Structures are given as structure tokens and as C-alpha cells.
Amino acid sequence: MLDLTGKNALVTGIANNKSIAWGIAQQLHKAGANIGVTYLPDEKGRFEKKVGDLVEPLNPSVFLPCNVQDDAQIDSTFDQIKDQWGHIDILIHCLAFAQKEDLSGEFSNTSRNGFQTALDVSAYSLTRLVQSAKPLFREGSSILTLSYLGGVKVIPNYNVMGVAKSALEMSVRYLASELGPMNVRVNAISAGPIRTLASSAVGGILDMIHHVEKVAPLRRTVTQTEVGNTAAFLCSDLASGITGQIIYVDAGYEIMGMTE
Fold first, then answer.
1. Residues 13 and 215: beta-carbon distance below 8 Å
2. Is 253 a catalytic residue?
3. Active-site residue among 148, 174, 248, 253?
4. Chain segment 66-110, per-residue pLDDT in tens
5. SUPFAM superfamilies from the entry (predicted)?
């Protein structure tokens, strides 16, 4: 029933084979979507090669550099997508970054630059990508981003990233309201802790994973594939009535009160 054949899906944020974005891209491809991928450019071209080699089995028809802190590059990316695809049906936003020193210690010690960087890359980038992508959306298009429980509750060593995820989740609601009349949907998945390149910057990530495995209703954490399956559903016509929502894919951990 879940069929994305003929849909153009742009996936951002793939870093390696542990990335949640990679799990999402695989499941979108499995459902029949035509995949496009962006990567963070660097002077030596390391990310281009690493990501390019990884996604080769998905046969992406679009493979472009996109630094979301560079407005000109964002516009160039979507100009090229317009030339190659003409339209976008699915936009996947899996981008987050905070300086390591702002993910530990007392939150009040967060630097101004660290706060701005975290909010820029992790939250504003969704709005900025939508700004350029908006003319390319068709009726029925879908936008999806990734959040985490730390955006609504205090999580040790998450600090400024929690504030960024909170801003991201509110951005989902405002964008859903704005794009709803176009029949374009905007949602987020709040995934349980998964060991990825991004999560490795969070101190005690393995302790967090083990804690979830102990107290979550399913007594385990989740996989990239499970998040990818939910993403494919949310981007399909099966979820045509769902927008502005934060969907928890965390083995039920979010519902628990006393967790010791």
C-alpha cells in the first residue's frame, strides 16, 4: 500500500551509514521514490566521496553540495533541482549541529556564538530550505524533519541543542499552517537515542541508550530502519491527513513518568 513511485525525494544530512537520514533514504528508495541527496561540502571533498560512495546503491538522480549556512548555495541547490526535476514531492531535513563545549556544563555558560550556530544550523535551516523549495512543491508534497525529546524535556548534556529542537518543533507547526492551503504537509519525527555521528557529541549517549532499553515500554531503543519506515509513511498518501505533528518513534519512552 505504501507506494512512493514517481515521487522526487530530496534527503539532507546523510553523513555515514549510521545516519538516521541514511535509514530514511533507504526506506524512501525501497518504496519507489526517486532519490536526491545533498552533502556538506569541504575543501578536500571528503564528504562528497564518502556520501557519494554510500548512496550509490540508491542511484540518486540529484547529488549536490549544500551548506545551509550559505544562502547563495541553498538557492543554487534548488535552482539545479528545478532544472533537473522540475518539482519536489518530499523534502527530508536531517540537519543539526552544536559546538561541543555548548553540549556540557551549565547551560547559562552557553556562548552567544554557540547559541546562534546551534539555532541556525539545527532550526533555521529548515525554514530556509523551505523558502527556496516552496515554488517547487506540488499539491500533496511532504516535508519531514528530525527532533528529539530534549526539545521538550531537560536531557543531560543536551543543553543548547534542546533549545534548538524546541525551535525546530515550533517551526514545524508554523510551516504546516503556512503550507497547508497548498496541501503541503510538514511533520517531525522525534526519534529515540540512536548511536550516530551527531549523537556521539552528546556526553553519555551510551548511558542514555541503555536507560531507554531498561525503562521504555518495548524495553529497547529504535533503529534507523524503524525511523525510516515512519518517515516513508508520513511522506506517503497514507498520511494525507497528518500535518504539524511531532511523531515519537522511541519504543514508547516518551510516555513514561517515573523512569528509575
1. no
2. no
3. 148
4. 999 999 999 999 999 999 999 999 999 999 999 999 998 999 999
5. NAD(P)-binding Rossmann-fold domains (SSF51735)
